[in-house]
Design a protein that fits this description.
Structural class of chain B: alpha/beta
Largest sheet of chain B: 7 strands, mixed
Number of strands of chain A: 10
Distance between the termini of chain A: 90 Å
Helix content of chain B: 25-40%
Oligomer: heterodimer
Number of helices of chain B: 16
Radius of gyration of chain A: 20 Å
Order of helices and strands of chain A: EEHHHHHEEEHEHEHEHEHE
Strand order of the largest sheet of chain B: 12-13-14-11-10-15-16
Number of strands of chain B: 17
Helix content of chain A: 40-55%
Chain lengths: ~290, ~525
């Protein structure tokens, strides 16, 4: 009779600069399943972890923003490929923390990477313009990434919601610091394992787990963050405070949606557009 | 000082060429019903490579029927997202098998392996990758619903924001979706008949098939008579990708097969790349039918070098412009217009550079100029060059040993060419450059535009404002400044005037395949 093998449990850590550190604070918090069972101790990120993540994200900007759109598209597609390969693992992890059809949730998350992969080299064609100014000038407007985007991931959808806010931020060349869904952070960290093995340069995506009310203010107030996505902030008072903090260096802020998001719907381009700057180049014409 | 090169041949062992190929219809290779078999040869050695089919009327009919069936039952109504996934698969398979495809391309076409490996194949994969991404984004490709031909019912599925909808930066993201402003979503056209040339066999296939499939059309593609093999290998890739049968059909053959295909009543859309003469005949043939037509035809591009141009860069650009792919390039910079004051030093530098070009075995990694694609094309190049001599232009070629077997033509320039000369007016489609001079920018523009063609042009100057002013005045679909022969899947390509109509590549490239 075979002896029952004791399973090896995974330690869920943060994802910063392409590495998986524990929180510098040495803290963790208990994550439970939808049934209330113990799942794991997740790292409880601190304000210093937020700062480390912003430093990593900033350092990753030149290489990622400077990569060709084609190359970024290839990497996002690679993420979809790697996610597909670990599909069953994600189905299990999502099913543990969410009610609903975990299979279609994971499928939608994979397809969402593919959707955004295709946008990498098309966004400028849809959102840029050649401008017929009244004079002998070449005049072209093209979008550029804004820089570092701080994201509070939606609490209601640990994987699909996260992918739906993360992919549109990075596809154009931004880097991101993401606060994962507080009560169901484990799929986010497993997603980080996919990101870490998809040729995505370290630091382009940094994922922190912990208490949003504790860490988000440090992100909102950080002067090296260019934009803030408050999609996952459910407390209207906190959202207002964060938006006010963000005003200090005029971060581009995306407010929480007043209505429940349908993460399965085709996303459109507005999440990408939210983190773009438009650069218009003038050049005289004349022999 | 002279450096000798040791041969550096690329191995042929990666490619397994079958002795005989059928037609690729409805997802499988089939024997012809009424087609004849003919042999395809290597232009570098004249060795027979394989036997292929010249599809007959019944074969073409079968292929069009298969495409129609696939269009109506398997492809048109497949969600764009899923069509895109097939195209991504194809892109990945091309990347994985790129060396094999590159070697086969060089064997069948005669082009240097350096070009098929470093230019053709990366572009082929990129093209499929690019259009794969469009498959589920078609309504963003045509802002304002430019092609809205159907009922004005608002777009509803998915309930997503569309371009023109409220940008959400800083604002709340409403889940109420704005209707697509133009009303109807763009729709595919139907069955596309696609006839491609022999100069970039696989790349032209990619330019044709990728946007057609992304938009939801099915295709029957006829590769050129002399270069069918990579298209047939591509058919195998379609099988590996589990592409539904009939979505891509490949019928091989010569001009007659092409004529049967474009004139077939079951075809909704014709796309042709090739000579202006054949393009004209196709335009006549589709007149009075419902068929939509795009044509990418010949060119006689001016490559204009101003006196302030960086000479060394310009020389590289001139060489790339006319000797890339043996000059078998519709957008080749075949007319050099050089400002008189710098003509002498420029031509000296050009000749020095030409003397370093290595002509020979296409599979040698050192080769710059490979074999002329066919005996017929070689005869055409020779004939026009002799006309150049007879009309009084001065011919120069570097000393250059050519192989004994196969079809070869040394890199050649003609100086003292006038605008009336046939070598300044007709497309030679070979490694032959006609050099003219000019004094003023206005004269350069005048001469550049003095051609029935209008595919491409080049401008060499350090002055940015001059680039833009000259570019405005050139009647050409692609203008390269301080570079030449650049291609990218995101960048539209196509001609003015008798170089054809329609664009391939970029957002514009989808228009040809959307109703």
């Amino acid at each position: 009779m075979p002896s029952a093998r004791l399973a090896i449990r995974k330690t869920y850590k943060l994802f910063v600069g392409g590495a998986f550190p524990r929180s510098e604070s040495g803290r963790s918090y208990v994550v439970t399943s939808v049934n209330g069972d113990f799942l794991a101790n997740a790292a409880l990120a601190s304000r210093k972890d937020v700062r480390d993540a912003v430093v990593a994200a900033r350092a990753a900007v030149p290489k990622w923003a400077g990569a060709t759109a084609y190359h970024r598209g290839q990497i996002l597609y690679r993420i979809a490929e790697m996610l597909e390969g670990r599909r069953s693992q994600f189905v299990d992890e999502v099913a543990a923390v969410e009610t609903g059809d975990a299979v279609s949730t994971v499928d939608a998350a994979i397809d969402r990477w593919v959707w955004y992969a295709g946008w990498a080299d098309k966004l400028a064609q849809v959102y840029g313009s050649a401008n017929p100014v009244a004079g002998p000038f070449f005049n072209l407007s093209a979008p550029e990434p804004t820089g570092v985007v701080g994201i509070v991931a939606p609490p209601d959808s640990a994987l699909l919601g996260l992918v739906s806010v993360l992919a549109p931020a990075i596809v154009s060349g931004n880097t991101a610091v993401v606060l994962a869904a507080e009560e169901r952070p484990l799929p986010a960290i497993t997603l980080a394992e996919v990101l870490a093995t998809s040729d995505l340069p370290g630091g382009v995506v940094n994922l922190l787990t912990g208490r949003v009310a504790e860490t988000a203010p440090w992100l909102a107030g950080h002067l090296d963050v260019n934009a803030l996505d408050l999609t996952g902030v459910t407390d209207p008072g906190l959202a207002t405070d964060l938006e006010r903090d963000a005003a200090e260096n005029l971060k581009r802020v995306r407010r929480p949606s007043p209505t429940a998001a349908d993460w399965y719907a085709e996303p459109g381009i507005d999440r990408m557009v939210a983190y773009l700057e438009t650069k218009t180049v003038w050049h005289p014409k004349g022999v | 000082m002279r450096f000798e090169y040791a041969p550096a041949p690329e191995s042929r062992s990666i490619v397994d060429i079958r002795s005989s190929y059928g037609l690729f219809i409805n997802g499988e290779f089939v024997d012809p019903v009424d087609g004849e078999r003919f042999k395809t040869i290597s232009p570098a050695t004249e060795d027979v490579l394989a036997e292929v089919v010249a599809a007959g009327p019944s074969d073409v009919d079968r292929a069009v029927s298969a495409a129609r069936d696939a269009y109506e039952n398997r492809w048109r109504d497949l969600p764009g997202k899923e069509r895109g996934k097939y195209l991504y698969r194809i892109a990945r398979l091309i990347q994985e098998r790129s060396r094999e495809l590159a070697v086969l391309e060089s064997i069948d076409n005669g082009k240097p392996i350096r070009e098929s490996r470093d230019v053709d194949l990366p572009l082929v994969a990129a093209h499929f990758f690019y259009y794969a991404g469009w498959a589920d984004k078609l309504r963003y490709a045509v802002p304002g619903g430019a092609f809205a031909g159907g009922p004005a019912a608002g777009f509803t599925p998915g309930g997503s924001a569309a371009p023109g909808g409220p940008a959400a930066a800083g604002g709340p993201s409403g889940s109420a979706a704005p209707a697509w402003p133009g009303g109807a979503e763009p729709r595919p056209i139907g069955v596309a008949a696609q006839v491609i040339p022999w100069n970039f066999p696989l790349l032209m296939l990619a330019w044709k098939i990728a946007p057609a499939l992304a938009a939801g059309n099915t295709v029957v593609l006829k590769p050129a008579e002399t270069t069918p093999l990579t298209a047939l290998l591509f058919a195998e890739i379609c099988q590996q990708a589990d592409l539904p049968p009939g979505v891509v059909n490949i019928v091989t053959g010569a001009g007659e097969t092409g004529r049967l295909l474009v004139e077939h009543p079951g075809v909704d859309k014709v796309a042709f790349t090739g000579s202006t003469e054949v393009g004209r005949a196709i335009a006549r043939a589709v007149a009075g039918t419902r068929k939509r037509l795009t044509l990418e035809l010949g060119g006689k591009a001016a490559n204009i070098v101003f006196d302030d141009a960086p000479i060394d860069q310009a020389v590289e650009g001139i060489v790339n412009g006319i000797f890339f792919n043996q000059g078998h390039v519709c957008c080749a910079g075949s007319r050099l217009l050089v400002q008189e004051s710098v003509a002498e030093p420029l031509l000296d530098a050009l000749k020095r550079r030409m003397a370093t070009l290595r002509v020979g075995d296409p599979l040698d990694k050192n080769t710059d100029v490979g074999a002329i694609n066919s005996a017929a094309q070689l005869a055409r190049i020779r004939e026009l060059s002799e006309v150049g001599d007879a009309e009084g232009a001065e011919r120069w070629s570097p000393p250059c040993a050519l192989p004994d077997r196969g079809f070869w033509f040394a890199p050649t320039i003609f100086t003292g060419v006038s605008q009336a000369h046939r070598i300044a007016r007709e497309e030679i489609f070979g490694p032959v450059l006609s050099v003219l001079t000019f004094r003023t920018p206005a004269e350069a523009v005048e001469k550049a535009n003095n051609t029935p063609y209008g595919l491409s042009a080049g401008i060499w100057t350090e002055k940015g404002s001059r680039i833009l002013a000259i570019a405005d005045q050139l009647r050409a679909g692609v203008v390269w400044a301080n570079t030449f022969n650049r291609f990218d899947p995101t960048s539209p390509f196509g001609g003015y005037k008798e170089s054809g109509y329609g664009r391939e590549g970029g957002r514009h490239g989808l228009e040809a395949y959307l109703a």
